[in-house]
Amino acid sequence: MSQLIIENLSIRYSKEVKALDNVSLAVNKGECVGIVGESGSGKSTLAKVLLGLQPYKEGHITFNGNQIVPKKKDALREYRRQVQMVFQDANSTLNPKLPIWKSIMEPLDNFKEVEPSFLNREEASRKELAATLLEMVGLDAHLLERYPGELSGGQKQRVSIARALSLEPGLLICDEPTASLDVTIQKQILELLKDLQEKTEMTILFISHDIRAVTFLCNQIIVLKDGQVVDQFPLKDLYQDNRHPYTKALIKAATF
Questions:
Q1: Beta-ladder partners of 66
Q2: Can you state the angle between helices 183-200 and 153-165, rounded to 10 degrees?
Q3: CB 143: neighbour CB atoms within 10 A?
Q4: Are 139 and 162 in contact (CB under 8 A)?
Q5: Biggest alpha carbon distance in the chain?
Q6: Which of 21, 43, 78, 130 could covalently link to 104 via disulfide, CB atoms 3.0 to 4.6 Å apart?
């Protein structure tokens, strides 16, 4: 059963310019789906729509069987609990004036009713909960009192992932989460996401311009170009002759 269904979604910036043009796709529960395309293809606009940061008038979005209507605040609150985001720039999501453990706990502080299966909120302190989340992403508890400026880029991205996981979301959206990292750290973050996805069976929507990263992590691939879905296929069909010319160009440009 599809957990996320997008039907005929269009976003217009003017009569002549469409950021998204009649986009339809479906993501099954527990899948890791990659959305790949160059800059300007509509990837980030799609992420903003799915987070409720970009309103839409054309199309329908259904999550867990419920239609997501941008102006229904109660429904949006529950939706935003279920759908979490890891952004490209961790600096933009971590408060430089807060120690790491307080940043990690912000989602749980905002949703006090949430009881993630891997946390015991009744018996553990807030700092102990943050330490458990840090451990899940491969970081030591001694970092709890540090500030974002004291961490490396890879460490900050791991903190962002821990924060996103804290609510045990049904869907994790990753928007270019490795783009600003060096190659070695990129691989570590991708391996972390793959490991977490296998352990938790959560659904991941991984957005990237890098088809190498997408093929490493994802079992389903959707290709965007000029706001349109031009290709979609399971990973095993990556090299099939019937791939779209744009998909073939992305593959050719990458070094596998």
A1: 63
A2: 20
A3: 18
A4: yes
A5: 57
A6: 130
User: β-strand 220-225 against 32-36: which pairing, if any?
Assistant: parallel
- Which tens digits make up the pLDDT trace of 192-221? 999 999 888 899 999 999 999 999 999 999
Give just the sign of the alpha carbon dihedral 22, 250, 38, 218: positive
Helix (H) or strand (E) holding 26: strand 18-28
Considering only CA atoms, give the Rg of the chain: 18
DSSP tag of 63? E
* Tokens representing residue 176 in the block: 């270019």
Query: In angstroms, rounded to a whole number, what is the distance separating the alpha carbons of residues 171 and 239?
Result: 28
Q: What superfamily in CATH does domain 2-253 come from?
A: P-loop containing nucleotide triphosphate hydrolases (3.40.50.300)
Q: Give me the residue spans of the domains in the chain.
A: 2-253
Query: What tokens does 153 get?
Result: 């880029």
User: What are 215's two structure tokens?
Assistant: 């093929």
- Tell me the residue length of the chain: 256
- pLDDT tens by residue, 136-168: 999 999 999 999 999 999 999 999 999 999 999
